[in-house]
Amino acid sequence: MSLPLDDRVLAHVQVVVVSKLRRRESFAITVPVDGSEVVSWIGPATPLEFVYSGNRRPLLNRAWLEQLAESASSNRGLVILPEPPMPPEPPGLAPPVGAVAVSA
Q: 86 and which of 5, 15, 47, 61 could share a cystine (Cβ 3.0–4.6 Å)?
């Protein structure tokens, strides 16, 4: 099954999903598709492929990653929440491009 997500959403979902699967945790994911909600169960044995339509990875929003990770650990599972404003990074503390730490 393919779940249509734009590249920005997909980049954030990928970080959360990979983080959960590294810990061998199973969870549900709810994605809005054509006005309906599609709920899928994802576990360590689920084959996944993240396919991006663009050629550049979006900058990741730490606040959104934390919200999505918290959602993924809830009884409802990972729900695509609206992106909060990106907080400014303190000077000199910004991570290298593509590096993100997520705690769940």
A: 61
Residue owning tokens 């576990």: 43
| Average pLDDT of the segment spanning 38-52 | 93
Query: Average pLDDT in the 38-49 region?
Result: 93
In angstroms, the CA 65 to CA 71 distance is 10
33 near 4, Cβ under 8 Å?
yes
Number of CB atoms found within 10 A of residue 40's CB: 14
Task: Report the alpha-carbon distance of residue 2 to residue 18 in Å, rounded.
Answer: 17
Which of 1, 2, 6, 9 has the alpha carbon at shortest distance from 81? 9
Query: Comparing C-alpha atoms, which of 53, 48, 45, 38 is closest to residue 16?
Result: 48
In Å, what is the CA distance from 52 to each residue of 14, 28, 44, 85?
11, 22, 22, 23
Separation between Cα atoms, residue 51 and residue 82, nearest integer Å: 21
pTM: 0.80
